[in-house]
Specification:
Blueprint (H helix, E strand, L loop, with lengths): L4 E5 L17 H13 L3 E5 L20 H7 L2 H8 L13 E4 L5 H4 L4 H12 L4 E4 L22 E2 L4 H6 L10 H7 L3 E2 L9 E4 L2 E4 L5 H11 L4
Parallel strand pairs: 1-2, 1-3, 3-4, 4-8, 5-6
Antiparallel strand pairs: 7-8
Helix pairs in contact: 1-2, 1-8
Length: 229
Amino acid sequence: MTSETVLLIVTSHDDLGDTGKKTGFWYEELAAPYYVFKDAGLTPILVSPKGGCPPIDPGSESPDFRGPSVERFAADSEARSALDRTIRAEDAPADCAAVFLVGGHGTMWDFPDWPGLSQLLGRAHADDRPIGAVCHGVAGLLSLRNDSGHPLVRGKRLTGFTNGEEAAVGLTAVVPFLLQDKLSAAGGHFVVGEAFGEHVVTDGRLVTGQNPVSSKSTAEKVLALLGRN
């Protein structure tokens, strides 16, 4: 029987480098996929490196970014309870329909070297389950290598938050690396779409979205791979 569970992975990191400012996951990038999967009859389970309540990037709670899915999530007691009680990777179900990496600048610090994430992604990859990732969440793909020891992204078409977009938000010198450069260096074929425009790339069972406005469509592409659209 196919699992009805989708693992939504969020960051536990809240310091924006040495700026003294806070970061975390980007609200829209959790809320939009959460309801794409839930409304299709799947069960979203939230996972983070530390478990418990993960940090929300304060910028993503501003009026300019509180779209319908964020408002719905904020008013949904079940969803908020799940967010308050994210589980650690080692406690996640062994079987899942798909894994989805939520973005936000915090992921740049704790996703790439998180062994628990590597294990979750490795299991999903071995089971031929779809893997989705949006914006900075794509950094989590750097944690996974294939059977030959090469990065999973090697030879894959993919996208994520671009160098241009990072420069536009003024964080090029703050993040530990530039996502576009790192993925390209790992052998990925990074496809750049319009800055801050909706852009999704599918390569086999891997679906990646460029930025926050790509969150919903990225999740919908994962859902399509599950035959649930």
